[in-house]
Amino acid sequence: MPVFRRPALLGALAALLAAPAMAQTQITVQHALPLNSHYGAGATALKETLERLTNNRIRVNIQRNDNEREMIESVQIGTIDCTITSTGPVGNFVPAVRNVDVPFLFRDYAHARGVLDSEIGQGLLNQFTPRGLVGVIWMENGFRHLTNSRREVNAPADVRGMKVRTMENQVHMRAFSTLGALPTPMAFSELVPALQQGTVDGQENPIPVIVANNLNQVQRFLTLTAHVYSPAVLICNPGTLNRMSAADRAHFMEAARAAQRANRERVSADEASGVDELRRRGMTVVTQVDTAAFQAALAPAFAEFERTLDGALLRRIRDWRPAGG
Ligand code: PAF
Q1: Which residues, judged by CB distance below 6 Å to any ligand atom, belong to the binding site of ligand 1?
Q2: Which numbered atom of ligand 1 lies nearest the CA of 232?
Q3: Residue 21: pLDDT above 60?
Q4: What does pTM read for this prediction?
Q5: Where do the DSSP E strands lie in the chain?
Q6: 213 Cα nearest atom in ligand 1
Q7: Tell me: domain 24-318, CATH 1.10.10.10, correct?
Q8: Given the CA of residue 32, which atom of ligand 1 is nearest to it?
Q9: Tens digit of pLDDT for each residue in 217-270?
Q10: Tens of pLDDT along 169-186?
Q11: pLDDT of 131 strictly over 90
Q12: Nearest Cα to Cα of residue 141 among 118, 165, 170, 113
């Protein structure tokens, strides 16, 4: 049995007291939707996985902020660590991302997820670095559909003259002005008052967003236009990741993949049940949409996007097929 002499024992105690408590880091992740939503599901999976893998050395604090541009600016200057945001305002920071905001570019969820998980998606994530941001992983908002308080929209002509809130996104605004609508860009935080006061007649968002935010209370008509896939992305401040050890960065990436899975699973589940739920809440839903007519009406905008965006990349995305598919 070891016998400690008194000075040695005191020395050991002093060293113990002087040792820093095991450092705990807190990461703040903001997103624009309620916790009970597809972004909330992703953020919760990120939190639970990272805290478990690091034995709570890294804690994740999830906060809500429904101004996506503001969140990206905060990540860039480092006042928050990470955000899960739609690509709505991202093109204003990383212009190449505008390519994936083009209407009717993706055929379905499998196409969108496949492209974003391929080297095409990784190539776009790499473009965040020179802008002082880390594009960690693609997440998902979903296919966007049109709602309004005026009339059933069955054909492109029904959209003419309608004031439609869009995200602060040049590609979406150009598409709506080509249809003859009056696109009105604003942050999501301003949407409900703008609909209530009649500043805008309509808006467009994926089913999970319409459901989670009770937009049926301010909108009567829903048309399943699926006019554009709305990607989301987990973006972090480079310093947040650089301060981590290599092992913790690997844990963070595993947590990000768990977040992506949970987020997409929730989008799929909400898509399956959401339309019936919105009908139950009183919305009139137009399900038969002449997609070809909307695409034809958008032809001038498509021609412009081929020139002003990356035409070759747009073709690669359209032509993408799963390996062996
Ligand atoms: O419409 C928007 O601004 C976005 O779709 C939202 C609701 C903030 C989710 O990213």
Answers
A1: 32-33, 68, 86, 88, 141, 167, 188, 205, 209, 230
A2: 10
A3: no
A4: 0.92
A5: 25-31, 58-64, 82-86, 134-148, 163-166, 182-185, 202-206, 221-236, 284-286
A6: 7
A7: no
A8: 8
A9: 999 999 999 999 999 999 999 999 999 999 999 999 999 999 999 999 999 999
A10: 999 999 999 999 999 999
A11: yes
A12: 113
